[in-house]
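Project standup — Tuesday

K.O.: blocked on the structure for the chain from last sprint. Re-posting the sequence here as requested.
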Amino acid sequence: MQPINDPFDILLDAAWTMDAAVLPAKVLAFQRLRILDNLSCLAAGYDAAGTDAALALARQWSGCEQASVIGSSLRLAASQAAFVNAVRSRALDYCDVVSPGWHPSSSDVPVALACAQLGGASGQELLAALAVGQDFAQRINQAAQSNGFFYKGFDSNILGLFSGSVIAARLLRLAPAEFAHAVGLAFDFGIGTFQHYQDKTLAVRISQGLVARHAIEAAQLAASGISGPRRVLNGENGFFNLYAPGAADPSKLTEELGVRFLGEEVTCFKRYPHCSILLALTDAVLATRGELLTMDPERCDLRLEMSPAMYMVCGARYVPTHTAEIDAQFSACYIAANAWLRGQATPREFSAECACEPAVVNLAQRIQVARMDNWERFDQCRLTVTKPGCAPKVIEAAYGKGWPENPLESTDLVAKFRQCLSQSACEPLRCNTNEIVQHIEKLGNAASVAALFSALCPIV
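H.V.: unblocked you, prediction finished:
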């Protein structure tokens, strides 16, 4: 490749040349956890709103049988299979997240699985592609966030186009020039805005599928001779100028490049199926629920103070609509009311039926919210319950369980996997839980992904 005076080239060269055999065992072990957690989320969201339409359209758009729709014997074009699998993975917002709102595995893992099938990759190659792709995108994310937090209103899942196209390009074994064009084309596609969160629409789920689909399509287009933008980071309309909230720090792109693989230190795995900004709130309300149950909320004043980030994404008054489950997932007031009244936060509490239950809706609507402009931690909040004649009950929350500062253990993720599969609408996944876990554990030594897919997609 000819140099183009853009730091993009340095990242590309590292991503293309990295030998899967030299990646540390710890890095590959983390990628296995990403796969396990992603499949948990896919199983839980298998029949969620929007997934039937995604599958029906993917079948219409698919003209070949390259990769599997997980949980069935159906095969579609690789990009369309990844699209369906990604929509299901993101449907309940149960998936892992990296600040400020990038959900890497919900598109990365579907891309990796589809391209490993299509390209005949080994398990080690699949795990390495996931690690290299996530490292690539996180370095860009880190540089872009050096002087600001959110991406000017764009959904930060645009980072998934970087990671996904790198994963696809590696697993489809693109030549260096094609590799560069694949990532450039993926960037050129763009994806989503934060408006779909604020308006609580099904686009939240579908956009994740489009990230996966576009990443594979970008690699296939590049392999067919289609060129993409090359000054992707520093160009006049490159990533930093379009998306970075402040001046980027290019030095972040190359710190320990090829030595340290970024991802684990910033990843939040969730134990509740709702927006990650609200994990701490659910934790805090559940921890104090015994005392809250002694109070009659109808006789109390309820005030929820929150960070600017929480207020922007999840601070609107709770009014369930025709997409009530998404309204619930992204509502601080619903999350507090749900934990108070029901004492748990599993996928069942975020069904459309539960999201419209009158008692929970009534309590959620009685909570007054306030934005605290001086709070920098995005999940910081404070619920104050004031009963006449009594001292206020103050519930402080921050650093929810699952964030890197307060991480879940691998045993927690295995337990989540088993719970999600046991409750899944997909019978083959329910029946093959143990076999799937075993194949994921052995993936680094597998000559291909065939055995894993035999467990994920049994012929029924």
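K.O.: great, moving the ticket to review. The chain has 22 helices and eight strands. The beta strands are 67-68, 75-76, 97-98, 267-268, 301-306, 368-371, 381-386, 393-397.
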